[in-house]
Design goal:
Immunoglobulin-like; single chain; 4 helices
């Protein structure tokens, strides 16, 4: 009769103990399901240093050109990249074509250690500088104001042309027409009083200070000094008088015979010059390139400069990396030698120029 009050409190005590044990174990399981793989998501691959849109450069390079990272492929451990050029106001930037190439992560992250900016690759215009050819930008908030007069483009200026001579009846490749304020779409011509104007082909603007082109000089062209004229799309123009010489030499069959040799054609070295400070990389187009080809700069008064790394992307394109010693300024013969000893050579002013830092 008097045992019931004792049993009821005892059962209530046991129920409380069970609830406390269940409560202590349940929060852990709910937290585990609420945040699955929490630590694994924060420690992804210990991967690439650069991301898409990074603009990187060799800090020792004197060139204005840099690399735009298009992306990284962990399967091959390589970056896809494209050359990017600064605008006239030194901001980044624009591309001159749609070409891309790949480079190993070890090379990119070891050599190109200076990160300059980050732009979405899709936002970088191709062969359309953002400020080299100023135009009115569409903006509802902008009307014609006084600032529009401060954005007038500058006229181009010609300083030097390499080479500065050619022969009638040949095509001359201009490796460097240097100056200032060059813009995409520029027109380049040779002119002489009493002769038809020669318009350059394959014009490629490397930067607002340098361009490449070709002049097909007619066989009946007048020998003597010719003027070079550069005209931007906005109509602004510059003429350097008597800067280019046309020669006539019956013993010379073609210009390339005098300025090149070998059976391996070399069309373009991009860029066509280096500075004597730091590690450099270049792209060469031509034909008949073989895996294992070597690249050498040669001059009679200096030891050969041999490229440390040559990457053959195909029989028409290769890339090479070269370290230019100090005191190497001037023109060098540029030689590509295949494993079977076939070679191509560009000589003298048609070859490769090393400039000061």
């Amino acid at each position: 009769m008097h045992r019931t009050p004792v049993i009821v409190p005892f059962l209530a005590f046991l129920l409380c103990i069970c609830l406390l044990v269940a409560g202590c174990s349940s929060p852990d399981t709910t937290n585990q399901t609420a945040q699955p793989g929490d630590t694994s998501t924060t420690t992804t691959t210990g991967g690439a240093l650069f991301t898409a849109g990074d603009i990187v450069k060799n800090p020792n390079a004197g060139s204005d050109v840099a690399w735009l990272v298009i992306g990284y492929d962990p399967a091959t451990d390589k970056y896809e990249r494209a050359l990017i050029y600064p605008n006239a106001d030194s901001s980044w930037g624009y591309r001159t074509d749609t070409r891309t190439d790949t480079a190993s992560r070890s090379v990119m992250e070891k050599v190109y250690t200076e990160k300059l900016a980050n732009l979405a690759p899709s936002s970088v215009p191709v062969v359309t500088p953002t400020t080299m050819i100023p135009e009115a930008t569409p903006s509802a908030a902008k009307t014609v104001t006084a600032t529009a007069t401060t954005e007038v483009p500058l006229a181009p200026v010609i300083k030097k042309i390499i080479p500065d001579k050619g022969y009638a009846g040949t095509t001359v490749s201009i490796s460097d027409l240097s100056g200032n304020n060059f813009a995409y779409g520029v027109n380049v011509t040779l002119s002489h009083s009493g002769s038809a104007t020669i318009r350059a082909s394959d014009v490629r603007v490397l930067s607002n200070k340098s361009l490449m082109c070709k002049f097909a000089i007619p066989a009946d062209a007048v020998a003597g000094s010719w003027d070079v004229t550069v005209t931007n799309l906005d109509g602004r123009t510059s003429t350097f008088t008597n800067i280019f010489s046309v020669n006539r030499d019956p013993s010379l069959v073609t210009t390339t015979a005098a300025l090149s040799a070998g059976t391996v054609p070399i069309t373009i070295i991009d860029p066509p010059f280096a500075t004597s400070c730091g590690y450099k990389d270049f792209t060469v187009t031509g034909s008949k390139f073989q895996n294992g080809a070597g690249v050498t700069l040669r001059r009679t008064d200096k030891p050969d400069i041999v490229a440390k790394t040559v990457i053959v992307d195909g029989d028409t394109r290769l890339r090479f990396f070269i370290d230019i010693p100090t005191g190497s300024m001037g023109f060098w013969d540029f030689i590509i030698t295949n494993p079977d000893q076939t070679y191509g050579k560009l000589m003298g002013t048609n070859g490769f120029e090393v400039r000061g830092c």
